[in-house]
Amino acid sequence: WPTLSALWLAAGGFPGWHLVVVFTLGTILMRSAGCCVNDVADRDFDRHVKRT
């Protein structure tokens, strides 16, 4: 998780539970949003992909 390692480095140590929770939830939320956007963007392309 590069976000948490960057948070630790920027804080010079443990940044506090509040920031860890906020950044963890933000990372999960943005990753999920990216997957949804990708599914919408690929919906026309996906139906032409042969499944095994």
Would you spell out the secondary-structure blueprint of this structure?
Blueprint (H helix, E strand, L loop, with lengths): L1 H10 L5 H25 L1 H4 L6
Description:
- There is one protein chain.
- The chain is an all-alpha fold and 52 residues long.
- The protein is built from 3 helices and no strands.
- The mean pLDDT is 91.
- Helices cover 75% and strands 0% of the residues.
Chain oligomer state = single chain
What is the CA–CA distance across the termini?
32 Å
Shape: elongated
Low-confidence stretches: none
How large is the share of residues in beta strands?
Answer: under 5%
- Rg over alpha carbons: 17 Å
In short:
With about 50 residues, this protein is an all-alpha fold. Helices cover about 75% and strands about 0% of the residues.
